[in-house]
Fold:
Amino acid sequence: MEFSSKLLQDAVNEMSQLPGIGKRTALRLVLHLLRQPKEQTDYLSKALSNMRKGIKFCKSCHNISDVDVCEICSNKLRNDKLICVVEDIRDVMAIESTGTFRGLYHVLGGKISPMDGVGPQDLHIDSLVEKVKDGNIQELIFALSSTMEGDTTNFYIYRQIQDFNIKTSTISRGISVGDELEYADEVTLGRSIINRIPFEASLKS
Amino acid sequence: MEFSSKLLQDAVNEMSQLPGIGKRTALRLVLHLLRQPKEQTDYLSKALSNMRKGIKFCKSCHNISDVDVCEICSNKLRNDKLICVVEDIRDVMAIESTGTFRGLYHVLGGKISPMDGVGPQDLHIDSLVEKVKDGNIQELIFALSSTMEGDTTNFYIYRQIQDFNIKTSTISRGISVGDELEYADEVTLGRSIINRIPFEASLKS
Structure:
């Protein structure tokens, strides 16, 4: 792509560094900003740089937070003996929006993925193991995505904490509520039969 | 969506103002920036605000340009008697990349679209009519997209300049090179038959 302006070219190049945004999309977005009032671009660029400079992470659960200890961790009404292990803030937001979990979270910041050069030392695993060692925790719930990397990460953490006397569990996999059986993939359907639950228990949830 | 951080929320909100970017995509993009070095966000936010502040438009053709008169308009080797009327810079880039046009452009900055509140006074139509009045131009090529708005804009401009003795033309519509006839839409195929060209002429292009 040849640009008639260096300023335009720089903006498009930087924009197209974002995942899933190619040069054409970047140009469309940048031209949109040009048609809008100058303030919109100011707000966007300031919001991005303020965020990148000022963002903090909760000292306890490593979730994104504006204060040292996030609202969830500092909420006395939540059960601090129950920890849900998740990959990133999006998972926290997703689980929070269900309203079914009243424990705390531990945000790993990713999954072990040798292909992407992410090892255990790049994730917040040590601080999780420390928490378990401290002896206050009763149960860890693994809520990582059900992929090779997710399973590897689960298993790595499990090995580190198996000698401590705590319960571990993983979120259930199965057919989505409202889905037709005939359209489900075989692996999920197979697992949902192996991991069947007592009918009486299903009535409660 | 409930965010655990105001800074994150602001960044996501501003990002999701861009066309085609919803809150979820905005969050994905912003989290990507958080995982990258701080500099990337700096470059992006500076490139955007520099572009918005510093961008200029060519005084002659209204294309985006870093100088008063753009490279195309100031190129003595180009035919300044032939003007191609386009909607925006993307069309200029697309036509330039074909390498088949050696005239100049006139960028309208949009199309007449009452539905979007865009009238003739919002576009660079007056300066085009002035150029025609000055008498230096031999031919105007209308290269707007073939929609109701494009056709309206073409016709509006045509009405303004029809009394001056210049040639007007419009880019040809037809089946794309390499396309199968059976998959073409009826309107395009119909037009391509009505606007057929002498076989000898087709051998030259």
Summary: Chain B has a mean pLDDT of 91. The helical segments of chain B are 6-15, 23-35, 38-54, 89-98, 126-133, 148-161, 186-194, 199-204. Chain B has two domains: 6-54, 66-171. Chain B touches chain A through 60 residues (CB under 8 Å).
